[in-house]
Design brief:
1 helix; Immunoglobulin-like; five-stranded antiparallel β-sheet; eight-stranded mixed β-sheet; Carboxypeptidase regulatory-like domain-containing protein
Length: about 450
């Protein structure tokens, strides 16, 4: 019985020792892909590997269409590391006799000695990488007189394997700015030059070498130029008003001339429009009307402002056929402040002497329209004759809504003389006109 127990114990121990080996074999390296380094070195092979144990060795075989191995290497170095996932690159590019796409077999051994082989793990794209060199944009800024820029440069190629740099002749080049396309072809030296129309400021010009069926093993490439700006033709607008101070309801005529700076100097424009608006202190504007500019550059608009404001004449350049404002003509503006005095009145006024001898003065101040001042002071004035020489002998600045359309006031003054009394609202020189009540005789 004791011997049997020993045999069972040995078998159990052997079983425990064998399981880790089987688990390690199952967790060997995984070859996830093999591909060319497309950024520039297409002759360099990249191999993506997942391995918990880490990578000890990488081997790659490049095959032709018949499956024959035509190149091999064990010389790999770590290209990038993300814990268990690593990318390995050949230390030198493959040197093959012809351009083309070649299947690749890969063999990987991890640090535990476990080896994984994958047939047709990927493709070595042994093709030519192209790129643009010495690209310039002249002039750097488009103007009203010259609405195009010239883009020049050289299309070059980097051969796989040898890394030799060559110029690419007779290659079709596309250039795009906004919705405008231009096509050109490189010369014998790989150089190109094309005039590109500019329709928007701050856009880059996209330069592209597309896929060319006559060069099946050449990669396409592209280039973005710096932003091309537009320097618009300067404009200026004048603004004259028939009056800078009016009463509410009265009209003002705004007129002026729009000019622009040409190579011959400042001359009137003959196109475009002027938007005349009322703007407040926060620069929030309400448009009265947009009027066209006449052939001699003049404009005119009669309007009725409803409150003190700044009249702004804003020149709007003409619109192009595509419905957008011409960016080659600058906008401009001129501001003229005006004062609009709102009407006030004192329709209800009463004056009488009380038994104490004091004079009681009451009434209301009304304002036309929807605007009222923040405070409403009232002056109480006395004249012995009622024909002039009004003397202010009291005031009241605590006016309240009277429920009848006005703001009531009240005063009680000591004045023993007989004479005439009236109430006067002094107004606000920037917003409200002054007014006076009828006069009342108090004996």
């Amino acid at each position: 019985m004791r011997a049997a127990r020993l045999v069972i114990a040995v078998l159990t121990a052997a079983t425990v020792v064998m399981f880790p080996s089987a688990a390690q074999a199952a967790d060997g390296p995984e070859i996830q892909y093999a591909t060319s380094q497309f950024e520039s070195e297409t002759g360099v092979l990249l191999v993506g590997i997942w391995s918990e144990a880490g990578v000890a060795a990488v081997h790659a075989d490049v095959k032709n269409g018949s499956g024959e191995v035509i190149a091999s290497t064990d010389a790999f170095s770590l290209d990038s590391d993300q814990e268990e996932f690593t990318v390995w690159a050949t230390q030198e590019p493959f040197l093959l006799p012809e351009l083309g796409y070649y299947p690749v077999d890969v063999r990987v051994t991890d640090n535990n000695g476990v080896t994984t082989t994958r047939t047709d793990a990927g493709t070595l794209s042994y093709v030519v990488a192209t790129f643009f060199d010495s690209v310039t944009v002249k002039p750097a800024t488009a103007t009203y007189e010259k609405r195009t820029v010239t883009v020049s440069g050289v299309l070059k190629e980097r051969r796989p394997g040898t890394r030799e740099i060559r110029r690419v002749p007779a290659a079709a080049i596309e250039l795009m700015s906004g919705i405008n396309w231009r096509d050109t072809t490189t010369g014998p030296d790989g150089g190109f030059s094309a005039e590109v129309p500019i329709t928007e400021s701050g856009r880059r010009i996209f330069v592209n070498f597309p896929y060319d069926s006559s060069r099946p093993y050449h990669l396409s490439s592209s280039y973005d130029t710096p932003d091309v700006l537009i320097k618009p033709r300067a404009t200026r607008v004048t603004s004259t008003v028939t009056a800078k101070r009016v009463k509410a309801g009265e009209s003002i005529t705004v007129s002026g001339v729009v000019s622009w700076k040409t190579p011959a100097g400042w001359v009137p424009v003959s196109t475009g429009r002027v938007n005349v608006s009322a703007c407040n202190a926060q620069d929030i504007c309400t448009s009265f009307e947009v009027v066209p500019v006449a052939a001699d550059g003049t404009y005119s608009l009669t309007l009725t402002p409803y409150e003190t404001t700044t009249l702004r004449s804003y020149y709007i350049p003409p619109y192009r056929e595509d419905g957008y404002m011409d960016p080659f003509v600058a906008v401009s503006q001129r501001d003229v402040p005006i004062v609009v005095l709102q009407k006030s009145s004192i329709p209800r006024f009463r004056a009488s002497r009380e038994s104490s001898g004091a004079v009681l003065l009451t009434g209301s101040v009304e304002f036309a329209g929807h605007l009222t001042p923040g405070t409403i002071p009232v002056e109480f004035q006395f004249s012995e004759t009622g024909a002039g020489d009004w003397l202010t002998v009291g005031d009241d600045d605590q006016s309240y809504w009277d429920g009848e359309g006005g703001y009531e006031f009240e005063g009680r003054l000591t004045e023993s003389r007989s004479g005439w009394w009236r109430a006067r609202y002094p107004g606000d020189p920037q917003n409200f006109a002054a007014s006076a009540s009828t006069k009342i005789y108090v004996p």
